[in-house]
Amino acid sequence: MIITNLKLKNWKNFKSAEIALSDTTYIIGPNAAGKSNLLDVFRFLRDIAKQEGGGLQKAVSDRGGLSKLRCLHARSDPRISIDLSLVSPAGIKWHYHLEFRSEGKGAQRIFVSKEEVTKEDKVLLKRPDADDRRDQTRLTQTHLEQILANEPFRELANFLSETTYLHLVPQLLKFSQQIGGKILEDDPFGQGFLERVARTSSRSRDSRLSKIEKVLQIAVAQFQELAFEKDEFSGRPHLRVRFEHFRPNAGWQREDQFSDGTLRLLALLWSLLDGDALLLLEEPELSLNSSIVAEIPAMMQKIQRTTKRRRQILISTHSEALLSNPGINAAGVLVIMPSENGSSVRGITNSEKNAILDGFSVAEVILPASRSAAAKQLSLAL
Questions:
Q1: What does the pLDDT look like over 315-334, one tens digit per residue?
Q2: Of residues 68, 71, 54, the one with CA closest to residue 14
Q3: Which pLDDT score is estimated for 153?
Q4: Distance between CA atoms of 156 and 98, rounded to whole angstroms?
């Protein structure tokens, strides 16, 4: 599925926003404008829909409660609204609308004030219904999270539950044994990345690693070979890389010896090849040389063209190198800007589009407009 449109009301930075999304969307804006909060909309829906136990109450609680979700500019309307339009590979149009608020008394539970699902023009769900009005406790749960209730729109629920978020922190992966820490639910920082690789069937794993190996041979100096193995004593999964060395077997290294950039690039490529659900990438340029960052859009396009299961990708970035790639579709660029009434989201303007058509890059046209006006004053504050 592809999400084509998103409407938000009173969600974090966004008092009101209507956003058109592309197959690949680049989200640009200054610090604290709301790039991460925009991506979190889709993580929030995933947390509600996931089959292993999520739900509305937990998704809100995990984010610090309703007061942390509701936009500070929402002075009179207490409701938070998320409205999605989607289209399936077969061209079938879906629509999901969730609106929720505080109970307003007693335990201050979160109540669903509206939940609607349509498929083409057929209404599959419209809440509150007669059962909800008879027993209001039912409104503490969405039908999205209930297996018995979401059967008519299970395809939509499964799609949302499989959303992937990647913001790999190399140190958590390199030193996972020494840290011995708990892996956060859904592993947003890649601490369990190797376990994910190990769970993949050997045929798919070998195919993906072969493709990644070819990229790393170009991107990483003296890189020769990439291999997967399990420790014969502990059974822990590992990735090994062989670098060019005058001794035949002396160039092998495990992931704890990889550079941060190699690990992040490897995880990025794996995620692009892994599945067809929505993929959220936060600042994929971190730890990578600018010459490699500049090729990320081209690598994503090639993988999308050559794989049977294309996935929608949303990317937040500050990177001038990444946005300088001439292959970026300007129609897939969103600019977030903070204001006194919450952050606004816009696509490119006609003048910006014309400048890009004249040969300027997205970085040259869009980044100057998205930079903080006060940034030049930082040194004066010291």
A1: 999 899 999 988 888 889 99
A2: 71
A3: 95
A4: 13
β-partners of residue 243 are 223
CA separation for the pair 49, 44 (Å, rounded): 9
* DSSP character string of 10-68: EETTEEEEEEE--SEEEEE--TTSSHHHHHHHHHHHHHHH-TTS--HHHHHHTTT-HHH
Six-digit token string for 103: 């109970």
Name the token pair of 270: 């794996």
Contacts of 14 (CB under 8 A, 6+ apart): 8, 34, 37, 38, 71, 342, 343, 345
Q: Among 8-12, 164-168, 218-222, which stretch is predicted with the lowest mean pLDDT?
A: 218-222
Closest CA to 92 of 116, 49, 112, 122: 122
* Cβ pair 12, 34 in contact under 8 A: yes
pLDDT at 20: 95
Average pLDDT over residues 219-223: 77
- Alpha-carbon distances, residue 54 vs 71, 75, 111, 143 (angstroms): 23, 29, 16, 12
8 Å CB contact between 301 and 327: yes
